[in-house]
Amino acid sequence: MDLGISGKRALVCASSKGLGRGCAEALAAEGVHLVMNARGSDALEEAAAAIRSDHGVEVTTVTADITTEEGRAAVLAAAGDVDILVTNAGGPPPGMWTDWDRDDFIGALDANMLTPIALMKALVPGMMDRGWGRVVNITSVSVKSPVAVLGLSNSARAGLTGYVAGTSRQVAGKGVIINNLLPGIHDTDRATALDGGVSKSEGISMEAARTKREATIPVGRYGTAAEFGAACAFLCSAHSGFIVGQNLLLDGGATNATL
């Protein structure tokens, strides 16, 4: 299927590896030029070089922490008038409800709620003026099925989901489509870190921790960045114009719900 976005320009945040890179790769494969951002320069430049070589698209890189005002300013200056925005940032650490104080929640809100909102406020008006735009926010399965040890993530990402629910319907008439992708367990550094937490708390090996979590997923495995990216590319495509304010689970069936 031709997604109809060749020649468009996208900002993909936190895209040097993991799910962000999967999204960048999938968009580049459709002929989308990229502005890629990450905190680590080496990994970012390596990813950008590989994408340029594999797909022949223009790739601009910005090494910055997207969760800071300074980082966003640098990224937005490089992005200019992009047609597609994919927001993404690492999740806050796991823990127990007794572990977190106000500063912990403020940090989570800054990274996983207020940063995507700031990026949308900066870029969506231009999309509306041009009559076309796509925004995909990478959130978490915890929005629909809260994960007890991820209370900071549950809270911040649920707030973003509520914001998108209203905003997406206000801008859809101008050709700007906003949706959220909710990843379950994917084979990324984040999954490795969480497996490490299970390994430590339960006194089992990393392999045993992973096997235990894989058993909770009906497909019997972790997701891949490539299949996540493919879903993102479709939501960014010319064919997604009637999908508004939705929360698409990519969790291998792990969330046991009818709706």
Class from secondary-structure proportions: alpha/beta
Largest sheet, described in full?
Answer: 7 strands, parallel
Q: Show unreliable segments.
A: none
Helix fraction, binned, reads: 40-55%
Helices and strands, in N-to-C order? EHEHEHEHEHEHHHE
Averaged pLDDT: 96
Number of strands: 7
Distance between the termini: 28 Å
Shape: globular
Rg measurement, Å: 18 Å
Share of β-strand residues = 5-15%
- Spatial strand arrangement across the major sheet: 3-2-1-4-5-6-7
Task: Walk me through this protein's architecture.
The chain is of the alpha/beta class and 259 residues long. It is 47% helix and 14% strand. It has helices at residues 18-29, 41-55, 69-79, 102-130, 151-171, 189-202, 206-214, 225-235, and strands at residues 9-12, 33-38, 59-63, 84-87, 133-138, 176-183, 247-250. Helix 4 links the parallel strand 4 (84-87) and strand 5. Helix 1 (18-29) packs across helix 8, helix 4 (102-130) runs parallel beside helix 5 (151-171) and helix 6 (189-202) packs across helix 7 (206-214). The longest helix is centred in the middle third of the chain and has 29 residues, at 102-130.
